[in-house]
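User:
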Amino acid sequence: MVIAIGVVILAFAAMLVYRFFGDKLGLIDRSKLGVAYVEHPGFISVKSVMMMVVSLIVLGGAMYVILSQEYDDGTQKWAFGAVGSIVGFWLKSEEA
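Assistant: Predicted structure:
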């Protein structure tokens, strides 16, 4: 169980690094997107922090439901759906 939680935390951290620092690390090539790109300032906005906090709260609750094995199938389906939605949100393309 500890390994599963560690893997989830590591994957979430990797998504955050890619999403917020991909440009600075050279992971995202903006020239291939075909859209104008404006360099953002070097700070993280309140909106970005709130996106991370809400994602962590929902992900934490969902992972508890999934890993505790105390809940029925309907509740676990909700939890898996919440995890999928969060992963999809953080991995969506910037152009969408």
